[in-house]
Amino acid sequence: MKFMRPDAEIYVPDQLEVKEALARTTHLAIGAHHDDLEIMAIDGILTCYQQPAKWFTGVVVTDGSGSPRTGVYADYSNEEMRKIRVKEQKRAAHIGDYAAQIFLEYASSAVKDRANSLPVEDIKNLVKATQPDIIYTHNLADKHPTHVGVAVKLIQALRTLPDEFKPKMLYGCEVWRDLGWMLDGEKIVFNCSERPNLQFALLGVFDSQISGGKRYDLATMGRRIANATFFTSHESDQATGLSFAMDLMPLIDEPDRDIQLYVKGYIDQFANDVSQLLGSVL
Fold first, then answer.
1. Which of 268, 264, 183, 180 lies closest to 228, judged by CA?
2. Per-residue pLDDT averaged across 141-168, rounded?
3. How much is the average pLDDT of 100-109?
4. Which of 45, 58, 178, 256 is the most exposed place for a label (fewest CB within 10 A)?
5. Where are the alpha helices (DSSP H) in the chain?
6. CA dist., res. 277 & res. 62, Å (int)
7. What is the pTM of this model?
8. Are strands 56-62 and 100-106 parallel, antiparallel or unpaired?
9. What is the pLDDT of residues 30-85, one digit of tens each?
């Protein structure tokens, strides 16, 4: 495949020919940063792990060069940091038995630039090459602007594709803002109870982040455990780990639908639910 950036890369852990590796994809995740995939798209990774008919492919859109760094990484240059993060992501792809791992190598500023259509073109080509049934990305209420930018670029790409290339489902997942606030009936709920050892291993390879003072490994597993316990108030736990997602497929099925109003609809439902509950006891 040809990408817009010359330093973009496709890594295939089992060394299958690239075209064939991409074509076997059933679950595709498109995230902003290295380690976002392992946080937000664990459902796809677990579903496909060692399943010959199901394959997970990950896409990291930005280059990671602007990552915060302390400790042993404090004096690393942007280019050295970029290489470290690519190495860590490749290790995760190997551990998780991914079909492929793609690095698009954009600066965060390019993703946040509404006028920059280059990431959209790369995403379109990747979706056509992989034709996945399910796509995972960031939720549109995430508080990280680069995450939201990636989700919007993906929606823009999917809206321009013929129906034959569109996924069956598009999920906006948790990273920098969880989705516990959404009404339970509106949440997409993923059971992440299986293989906690694999989940810890996938998160633990990102030493540049963990040693840099961000315990994403503990925080992510803690969130999944907390989601499972606090999901229902009057029933025993049915899982030991849950993650939540926002259904973004209506924005593809109805390409003229306003993205901001769509997200505001979820927020309004939450506000109304809180008001009604308070009103019932005041």
1. 180
2. 97
3. 96
4. 256
5. 18-23, 36-40, 42-48, 78-95, 108-112, 118-130, 145-160, 196-204, 207-210, 216-230, 250-253, 259-281
6. 42
7. 0.96
8. parallel
9. 999 999 999 999 999 999 999 999 999 999 999 987 776 677 777 788 888 899 99
